């Protein structure tokens, strides 16, 4: 999985369904046409570019791509290497 993940603001979403058409691998629809994110929005690295396109196409900005901060161990090992 990548450090990027999809986040959905259900209040802002108007059920346009566009995101599910652009990223059917990770976004399904409920009975009312609202998106359902697979694995809580987690993304495999190979789908990040598609997810970015789907988020950019959302007319209400309800779908966002967020990057998780690096894990603590990563930062510690980077800091240790710099010293
Ligand atoms: S494109 Fe945006 S508004 Fe439309 S269903 Fe997806 S998240 Fe909701």
From TrEMBL:
<dbReference type="Pfam" id="PF13459">
    <property type="entry name" value="Fer4_15"/>
</dbReference>
<protein>
    <submittedName>
        <fullName>Ferredoxin</fullName>
    </submittedName>
</protein>
């Amino acid at each position: 999985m990548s450090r990027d993940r999809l986040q959905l603001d259900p209040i802002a979403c108007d059920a346009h369904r566009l995101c599910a058409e652009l990223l059917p691998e990770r976004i399904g629809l409920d009975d009312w046409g609202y998106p359902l994110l697979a694995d809580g929005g987690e993304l495999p690295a190979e789908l990040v570019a598609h997810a970015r396109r789907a988020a950019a196409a959302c007319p209400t900005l309800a779908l966002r791509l967020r990057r998780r901060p690096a894990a603590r161990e990563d930062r510690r090992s980077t800091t240790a290497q710099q010293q």
